[in-house]
Amino acid sequence: MGRASIAYTNKDYDSLRRELLARVPQLTDRWTDFNASDLGVVLLELFCGVGDMLAYYLDAQAAEAFLPTARQRQNVINLCKLISYRLDSPVAATTDLRFSLAAPLDADLVIPEGTACRARLEDEDVEFETTKDATIPTGRMAVEVGARQGIRKTETFSGTGEPGQTINLTGTAVAQGSIRIRIQDQEWIEVLHFQESEVESPHFQSDTDALDKTSIVFGDGVRGVVPTAGVEIEVAYLETLGASGNIGSNLVSELLTPVYLDSQQVALTVDNPVPATGGTDRESLEHARKQAPAEVRSLWKAVTKEDYQSLAEGYPGVAKAQILDVNDCGNIRYYQVNLAVAPDGGGPPSPLLKEDLAQYLESRKVITVEINLFEPVYRPVVIDAEIFAYAGEDLDLVHSRVEQALEDFFAFDRMNFGVPVHFSDLVSTIDGVRGVSHVKMFTPQQDIEIRAGEIAVLGILNIDVRRAV
């Protein structure tokens, strides 16, 4: 008796049931009742159901071994580690804080690094801390300094003396790059890996898992120092709100950390003259799948224009980047790279974000290249249209639906540098709104070209909703 040829790629319930029923006559001629009520068919269908589930889990497990198809966050984290790419934890928003005096002082006033300030909003309070010391000189009344969003927290641990000691932090929203470790008054340095660490290198690694639990790993004594047994390990970090830390200008108003001059507290007012931007939640799996291969292609060095863009877009707090020049303009030097950068959440990048990004690119560029960073130009697109709604539709409701559809169309996450706005896409978007019969566009009436360095945003919206005749 010959064997039935089973297509092993057909692993769904219907295919399994069909293949098994076709195999039955080759096994016995006594089974002739294939109705759904037959006990043998019932058992066969049960086995097919179990086989379908097992095949799904096997396929899903195999898919987790590849970056393009992995769906579980921890597996994506582990795969990215193989190419030295680490998914970003939440990124703290950055801004400038302005400290002002009521009257000039007769001595320099130092506002120390880590001075905390707060913005009181309806939903929640948003706290910031300064990133370095700032000084109001004698006779002056104000100074501006960069600040990051977050609340500073400190935890203390004890060294075990064991190679590769690991400690777990209690915070679940540790800001990217904010961890500071001090052991016996020495500042330790965070590294991506221990490959270049020496025996006496005070290095550590941080690792955040899929549940946002952050752990600290020290060296093994061969690559990286091992903290001695019983030594106190002080770990400080920022716990951030991520994207919720992006707030408008002039919202920070409370000074939480008192500032002293000659042991006397000084009255200061504080505000943020520029918006807080660049804050974002933990890196998404979609972004990691795109960004990790791009950074591998660049080998973490900026040589080509694509390298500069890939490295900039992978920097925490940066959402979009575009090279503005093609190195064929007679007004600039050949070895000059002009880069437009938009932060997460939109708006202009803060001076602190631009400073940090410039330092990051400087460490990876060719020595003869000069890098210039530019803010994005947000180009408003005016919409003037007459919209006709079906009979029986609420005109106000249709109006609000159209507004929402256009806001979604021009959402910051959807638009990119230099991408034109097509007239047909606008008409299609409005026509697709529930309750809209047709639309008559007055402005624009053709495609809108968006130049390099520009991002289209929704401008003045003037829509008139009427009944369709």
Automatic annotation (TrEMBL):
It comes from the Bacteria. InterPro entries: Barrel_Baseplate_J-like, Baseplate_J-like_C. Residues 97-148 form the Baseplate protein J-like barrel domain. Residues 383-462 form the Baseplate J-like C-terminal domain. It holds the Pfam family Baseplate_J_C. This is Uncharacterized protein. It comes from Desulfosarcina alkanivorans.
